[in-house]
Amino acid sequence: MLLQYILRRTLILIPLLTAVSIISFVIIQLPPGDFLQMEVMRLRSAGTPIAEEQVNLLKVQYGLDKSLLQQYWIWIMGILTRGDFGFSMQLNRPVGEILAERVPLTVLVTLMSAILIWLIAVPIGIYSATHKYSFFDYFWTFVGFIGLSVPGFLLALVVMWIAFSRFGITAIGLVSPEFENAPWSLAKFIDMLKHIWVPILIISFSGTAGLIRTMRSMMLDELNKQYVITARAKGLSERRLLLKYPARTAINPVTSTIGWMLPALFAGEVLVSYVLNIPTTGPVLMRSLLNQDMYLAGSIVFILSCLTVIGTLVSDILLAWLDPRIRFEGNAV
Amino acid sequence: MTNIPLIPRRKRSDPFEQAADAAVAQSKRVERERKYYTASQWQLIWSKFRRHRLAMTAVVVLALLYFIAIFCEFVAPYTPVKDFPQHLFSPPTRIRLIASDTGEFVGPFVYALEGKLNEKFQRVFVEDMTTRYPIRFFVSGEEYKLLGLFKTDIHLFGVEGAPIFLFGTDRLGRDVFSRVVYGARISLTIGLVGVFLSFLLGLTIGGISGFFGGAVDEVIQRIIDLLISIPGLPLWMALAAAVPRDWSTIQTYFAITVVLSIVGWAGLARVVRGKLLSLRQEDFAIAAKVAGASEARIIAKHLLPLFFSYIIVSITLSIPAMILAETSLSFIGLGMQPPAVSWGVLLQDAQNLSAIVLYPWLLLPCLFVIVTVLMFNFLGDGLRDAADPYLI
Which residues of A touch B391 (CB under 8 A)? Predict the structure, then answer.
């Protein structure tokens, strides 16, 4: 049953990813003119003469003389068969190479933020529900509202300011300056861990708020149910009772929030990494968009969207595994 | 159901009076209950909303912010482009109440600031304590057109003889406070316009989806799924990057709102469709049908009022996301472009560490962003609690 569910959900992935790739291709084509025209213009303004025939030759070489549909086909086939995402004019390197450098770090930061959000929000949600209207309940509600209202990049700016004025740290970055160009080693990895918690904490902050609220209200719903009273009447200790029954039921809808949490996390990551100068996809995406380096920009949007779609799938499967009602209902959320 | 406060009974010795008091209390309670059960939906929503303190605070603060946005020429002491070449990166002017020489209370005044080089050859501003310049209200300054109609030169406050910078100045010596006040216009309205556009799109598409059902519904639902699963900001950034740089402020403004609502309608459409479908199944809708009411009457009389309270809530809660999106886009240089003034554009100046450390007042616009977003969240929260007045 579970296998069938996974299979069906995976099949839905195909049209979704196709649609995502079309959107990304549209993004690449959006700015007026194409990269070749811009490059030719740049070269001509720099004084390098380029003959019209040469331009046409390049056009054929890059497939720019073909229809948009054919161009899309060439682009997507390049990605699927050769891992060829196109060429970044601005960085003068293949896009695939840049992605290989940056994407793992983005995934690492986002995943760790998601885990941190869970670790913080679930216990606090349970506590707030069992201690309704207590001081800490109000306190966390307040913190939650602040988290919702303060955008990550502002928090990052403030953190940078504090880091400098208190500790004299000029750049958060990913590693200390002495490791900047060093190859990966255990020492560099440990050094990275010393830095990476800052962006992770900042990105998690805004996500935690919503999850605490969801967890709290789900938990409140469950606490009023008969089975809780029965269990209590039978003399089960409060702690075991909470963790064994209502918490397990309440956590299910929270699992499904991963789906909408991931897009928000990726979005938050872009700006926070830009401000803190973390070498993830965020700062590259920004610079490429400002410079209209569209193959790079489109590919990053494509990869981020793919990751989100796949992440949502994983969370749905996780939910089906946790909650048999969803597997047997047949109709997934 | 019984949130009707009981009238406290005073102690009386006379049993007859006690009985009379009880009867009065009883009739008052009945009266209250009658009022409660016969009140219209909107009356109930209002009475419940009024009790939500945070939401009421939010209404007041937001009203104030929008007042500032509408009358920004009046509130700001200077125009956003007026520069003071002698006061580049001046810190906020200190407003004093007590004269430093005599120690007596003289009302709000400022000292003139003088730029001097310190021993490290850094420019610092020193207050010139010789002359006091009182802060006056409703002073005349630069001429402007109030609401674009009436010519006047009255500003809310100002100082004659010396400049006043409540929030300091930026790298060109422009008053940050005035720029924040002018920036409110774009920052506060872009959320409203964006949500309005998303709402139009969402209502139409969600309505079509719910009305036709079948294959149309299925396709629209999949499109919505897709739009919701794509990370919003990267997509917004990519679309905003395609907006030509040489467009005018007005053109960019509308382009950005369109970009924001292209992604934003999906969530609203889902709410519209889901709510319509579930409300049709409610007991009262079925009861009305059984009683012989026409489809049109059921929708207009029973579904729409309830439905609209939900829509208002989800609209209110999606405004802050739009405001934050505009701020983020402008902050990284992909949204509004200078010379347009919005809070995000102002924050561009606070991008690098040295600027924040040396001139921390450049971060002040973000205080306004945070307060606005916080207030919209409070308002939405209060509306959500009040939207279903029968639920306690």
Answer: none
Q: How far apart are CA B89 and CA A123, in angstroms?
A: 46
> What is the per-residue pLDDT across B365-384, written as a single tens digit (0 to 9) for each?
888 988 998 898 888 888 87
Nearest chain A residue to B352 by CA distance is A275
Q: What is the CATH number of the domain that holds A311?
A: 1.10.3720.10
Give the mean pLDDT of A60-73. 75
How does pLDDT run across B328-343, given as a tens digit for each residue?
888 888 888 878 888 8
Residue B149, judged by CB atoms within 10 A of its CB (0-12, 13-18, 19+), counts as exposed
Domain that includes residue A142, residue range? 95-332
The pLDDT-based confidence of B2 (bands split at 50, 70, 90) is: very low
What the block records as the tokens of A78 is 């390049």
**B chain contacts of residue A292, beta-carbon cutoff 8 Å:** 241
- Tell whether the model's pLDDT for residue B392 goes beyond 50: no
Q: Which of A19, A270, A297 sits opposite B233 (nearest CB)?
A: A270
Q: Is the pLDDT of residue B389 over 60?
A: no
Q: From A22, which residue of chain B is nearest by alpha-carbon distance?
A: B226
Decide if A29 is inside a domain. Answer: no
Predicted confidence (pLDDT) per residue in B185-194, tens digit: 888 888 889 8
> How far off is chain B from A247, nearest CA to CA, in Å?
24
CB contact under 8 A, B373 and A149: yes
What distance in Å separates residue B370's CA from the closest CA in chain A? 6
B214 touches A at CB < 8 Å: no
Scanning B157-186 for CB atoms below 8 A from A yields: none
Kindly list the distances between the CA atom of residue B140 and the CA atoms of A97, B53, B79, B154, B178, in Å, as whole numbers in the listed order.
62, 38, 13, 4, 16
Tally of CA atoms within 13 A in the half-sphere of B52 that contains its CB: 25
* Confidence class for position B297, pLDDT limits 50, 70, 90: confident
Tell whether B237 lies on the interface with A, counting CB pairs under 8 A. Answer: yes
Of A153, A157, A260, the CB nearest to B228: A260
A47 inside domain: no
Number of domains making up chain A: 1
Tell whether A161 is covered by a domain.
Answer: yes
Query: For residue A259, which residues of chain B lie inside 8 Å, CB to CB?
Result: 229
Any A CB within 8 A of B244 CB:
yes
Measured over the CA atoms of residue A194, residue A200, residue A201 and residue A202, the dihedral's sign is positive
pLDDT at A212 over 80: yes
Assess if residue A51 is contained within a domain.
no
CB contact under 8 A, A292 and B332: no
Cβ within 8 Å, pair A267-B241: no
**pLDDT computed for residue B5 by the predictor:** 52
Alpha helices per DSSP H over chain A: 2-29, 35-45, 52-62, 68-77, 95-130, 135-149, 152-167, 186-223, 226-233, 238-244, 246-256, 258-276, 281-290, 294-322, 324-329
Return d(Cα A258, Cα B135) in angstroms, integer.
Answer: 54
- pLDDT-wise least confident of A122-136, A190-204, B300-314, B353-367: B300-314
**How far does the CA of residue A187 sit from the closest CA of chain B (Å)?**
27
pTM summary value = 0.79
Residue in A with minimal Cα distance to B233 = A267
Q: Rounded to whole angstroms, how far apart are CA atoms B323 and B189? A: 9
